[in-house]
Automatic annotation (TrEMBL):
The protein's name in its UniProt record: ABC transporter substrate-binding protein
Annotated Pfam families: SBP_bac_8
Chief place where the protein resides: periplasm
Biological classification of the source: Bacteria, Pseudomonadati, Pseudomonadota, Alphaproteobacteria, Hyphomicrobiales
Keywords from the named record: Periplasm, Plasmid, Signal
SUPFAM superfamilies: Periplasmic binding protein-like II
Compartments where located: Periplasm
Signal peptide residue numbers: 1-27
Compositional bias ranges of the Basic and acidic residues kind: 417-429
GO CC term (a single one): periplasmic space
CDD domains: PBP2_UgpB
Organism of provenance: Chelatococcus daeguensis
Length: 429
């Protein structure tokens, strides 16, 4: 997921906090938690409320949330803190940074933290989310704010274009055909509304991985030591993305901003957008028109990468601090709390049990779109994650931006990205 700080929901959605019985770690055990969001705003209020509710149920544990900026900021600060010997006791960091944290010898596998009685909890998460949480037979991260990419569409725009407002495109061909009807131009030929918009800043590799998944190719092996950037099916997926603007002329040219895409949608500048389900509450609260949410369209197959952040516990934590961090993580991911978090933010509740709570059943009955990202987990794949992940991902992002701006043809862009990724990954092969 990608984390989106414009979620607009009061912390009151978390009022039904879980009174989960957790044995106190010790008297006044204090743990610091890095959390990836800038200080201030709705999300910090929600996290602060969670921490307060947890403290009320566990008065012997003090959790200090430290708001650490973006995901990129957070992993940078964590690695810096590790080298300085003052890392936090636990943190929410991208699931794709798992290999980086393992290579830094920074984190503890949860099998070393849990009791036999906790094994059911450890195995209770959606398998799709565990693809970026486990490697080498060990569980390194616990899913928390997790997501898939979904498509949103403006039902009024569909109706105006003569399309069924209640039916989203189910294939690439259907999406192009709909986008051609939805794209509007003024008398001078200037576009006043694009048919479709797929962001290419912020997390370009993630949005692109949706296209490669749909073209039935996986970008990295499970060991995180090899990538397939120059696979012909990858090049074909990139050519399609380029063609949306260059050939079909239904998509903005160049780089499309991640952060402003929802705003463009609200303002009627785009009729269909691809973005994280973590934007669901934001769209629900701010779209001035009826909208739909659907799984992404398919080509060879359907699918989306998962995304978002996991909880990690750091080796520098004392035994008592590890116990306290685990207590909070178990509390935050328990069914009632996971349901409340999902309702407040739009992220996917990470366990099937959360969807069986009365609160979640009521929410889905009132707002069926909330279940789309969960249902898409059946065809989801692991988000791109490798050793030295940031450099390997940067190689792909650079190639994508070169192709989307017209600086390179897709085939050359992916050939160059592959060469750079191979160079970075050679020590791990």
């Amino acid at each position: 997921m990608k984390f989106f700080t414009q979620v607009r929901c009061g912390a009151a959605a978390l009022a039904a906090s879980l009174a989960l019985a957790v044995a106190p770690a010790s008297a006044e055990t204090t743990v610091n938690m890095y959390y990836p969001v800038a200080v201030g705003g709705p999300i910090t209020k929600i996290i602060d409320k969670m921490v307060a509710d947890f403290s009320a149920a566990n008065p012997d544990i003090k959790v200090n949330p430290i708001y650490s900026g973006s995901y990129q900021d957070t992993i940078t600060k964590v690695v810096t803190a590790l080298k300085g010997g003052n890392a936090p006791e636990f943190a929410v960091i991208l699931s794709t940074d798992m290999f980086t944290l393992i290579d830094e010898d920074a984190i503890v596998p949860f099998e070393e933290l849990v009791s036999d009685a906790d094994k059911a909890w450890l195995d209770g998460f959606y398998p799709g989310f565990m693809l970026n949480s486990r490697t080498g037979g060990k569980t390194w991260g616990i899913p928390f704010q997790r997501s898939t990419i979904v498509q949103y569409w403006n039902k009024d725009a569909f109706k105006e274009a003569g399309l069924d407002p209640d039916v989203a495109p189910k294939t690439w061909d259907e999406m192009v055909a709909a986008a051609e009807k939805l794209t509007k131009r003024d008398t001078s030929g200037n576009v006043t509304r694009w048919g479709v918009q797929i962001p290419s800043s912020g997390f370009p590799y993630w949005l692109f991985q949706a296209l490669t998944t749909q073209n039935d190719v996986i970008l990295a092996n499970e060991a995180g030591t090899k990538v397939t950037y120059d696979d012909p099916r990858v090049v074909e997926a990139l050519q399609f993305w380029v063609d949306l603007s260059k050939k079909y002329k239904v998509h903005p040219q160049g780089i499309v901003e991640w952060g402003t895409t929802p705003k463009d949608f609200f303002e009627g500048k785009v009729a269909m957008m691809w973005t994280t389900t973590g934007n669901l509450t934001n769209v629900r609260n701010n779209a001035p028109f009826p909208f739909g949410v659907a799984m992404l369209p398919a080509k060879v197959r359907g699918g989306s990468p998962t995304g978002g952040g996991n909880f990690y516990v750091f080796k520098n934590a004392s035994p008592e601090q590890r116990k306290a961090a685990l207590a909070f993580i178990k509390w935050a991911t328990a069914p009632e709390q996971a349901a409340a978090w999902s309702i407040a933010t739009g992220y996917v509740a990470v366990t099937p049990a959360a969807w069986e709570t009365e609160a979640m059943k009521k929410y889905v009955a009132e707002f069926p779109a909330a279940a789309v990202a969960r249902d898409q987990l059946d065809v989801a794949v692991a988000e791109l994650s490798t050793h030295d992940n940031q450099r390997v991902t940067k190689a792909l992002n650079d190639g994508l931006q070169a192709a989307l701006t017209g600086a390179k043809e897709p085939g050359q862009a992916m050939k160059d990205a592959q060469a750079e990724a191979d160079r970075v990954l050679r020590p791990f092969q």
